[in-house]
Amino acid sequence: MGYAVKSLPTQMGREAISPFGERRYNSWNDHIKARYGGRVQKVSIAAGFTCPNRDGLIGTGGCTFCNNAGFTPGYLDHRQSITEQIDAGLHFLSRRYPRTQQYIAFFQSYSNTYGELERLRDCYEQALSHPQIGGLAIGTRPDCLSEEILDYLEVLAQEHLIELEIGVESCNDAALARVNRGHDFAVSVAAIRRAAKHGLEVTAHLILGLPEESHQSMLEGASQLSALPIRALKLHQLQLIRGTELAHEWQCNPDAVPLLGEQAYISLLADFVERLSPAILLQRLGVEIPPSLKLAPHWNLRLYEIAPRLSAELARRGSWQGCRYRSATPSPV
Ligand code: SF4
Fold first, then answer.
1. Contact present, 45 and 106 (Cβ < 8 Å)
2. What CATH number does the domain containing 306 carry?
3. What is the per-residue pLDDT across 201-222, written as a single tens digit (0 to 9) for each?
4. Distant-in-sequence, close-in-space partners of 206: CB < 8 Å, separation ≥ 6
5. How far apart (Å, rounded) are the C-alpha atoms in residues 308 and 304?
6. CA of 166 relative to ligand 1 center, distance in Å
7. CB 3.0-4.6 Å disulfide test: which of 61, 144, 207, 295 passes with 240?
8. Distance between CA atoms of 228 and 218, rounded to whole angstroms?
9. Residue 53 near ligand 1, beta carbon < 6 Å
10. 318 CA to centre of ligand 1 in angstroms
11. What is the mean pLDDT of the chain?
């Protein structure tokens, strides 16, 4: 995993020295800049996949928080070919981030390993054949990773940057059941371990604040994830997207779907990060849904402000990522 520290002594009360400098957490952006000599930007692609929690294999309603439009950039047109989508994305991103050194194609919408291997191979290799694409990020569910697919990705990863993003969403089975996720945490644990055995770099995706979670259960999640071979973590707060089942539940009874305020989220994030292994890179700390799609909560805090607010909160506490991490947490499977 590249980062040798297994646990760090808590130095609160004495002069505290963060091993991560002023950020106080292990930043994916800093790591990528050091590894690739500059900014690496993801170009989103909608390859036309669906997901087994929608097409009937596991369920039909999908996860109750899910509306993929909420996470789809405006430049993305799913009717275009993969090459055309990449060209459109590069046109948009190169003006917005002119100092980008490298691009990777992000198969983001729905479950991007849910299909026949031939189809997956065709999609991934189309993206990799683009002259400006240096690798792939592939988002999927933990129950859509057959050995055949992992074998193929292992070979691909020998020549390209391949980041496998697995939707864990919660480490709490009651929360997963409550949002109709269609799998439990043990499925995520097994998938992460299998992917890592194939030499793949795994990013776990987690939502903080799902119904049925408690502050304590989310902090236990930090310890449970730390026990797994995860390279990076994407975290974000629960936001309710119009038209989703969870939004409907909240509209009928707000008490049934408690939402975090912005200060409570920053405080939870700091508690979580303090308990997280210092080896895990933090790739994302929040999300911002387009205002036309978002129902609640309404924060004044913008997405770009979350990282500095987290660093400021950790500095105020004299703490940093991993300062409360204990490496011997047993894994549930
Ligand atoms: S969040 Fe992912 S797994 Fe759940 S319904 Fe949406 S696409 Fe399917």
1. yes
2. 3.20.20
3. 999 999 999 999 999 999 999 9
4. 168, 169, 170, 171, 221, 225, 233, 234, 235, 236
5. 8
6. 11
7. 295
8. 16
9. yes
10. 38
11. 91
Q: Calculate how far, in angstroms, residue 33's C-alpha sits from the geometric centre of ligand 1.
A: 31
In a domain, 138, yes or no: yes
CA of 10 to the centre of ligand 1 (A): 38
Length of the chain equals: 333
Q: Which domain range does residue 282 map to?
A: 28-317
Instruction: Please check the confidence at residue 144 and state whether its pLDDT lies above 70.
Output: yes
pTM listed for this prediction: 0.92
Q: Whose CA is nearest to atom 1 of ligand 1?
A: 66
Q: Is 3 among the domain residues? A: no
- Among all chains, which residue has been given the structure tokens 């049925």? 212
188 lines ligand 1 (CB under 6 A): no
Q: Is 66 in the pocket of ligand 1 (CB under 6 A)?
A: yes
Burial of 96 from C-beta contacts in 10 A (0-12 / 13-18 / 19+): exposed
Q: Is residue 5 part of a domain?
A: no
Question: What is the distance in A from the centroid of ligand 1 to the CA of 1?
Answer: 28
**What is the Cβ-side half-sphere exposure of residue 185, based on CA atoms within 13 angstroms?**
18
List pLDDT tens digits, range 81-103: 999 999 999 999 988 888 777 89
Count: domains in the chain? 1
Closest C-alpha residue for ligand 1 atom 7 = 110
Task: Name the band, by pLDDT with cuts 50, 70 and 90, for residue 7.
Answer: very low
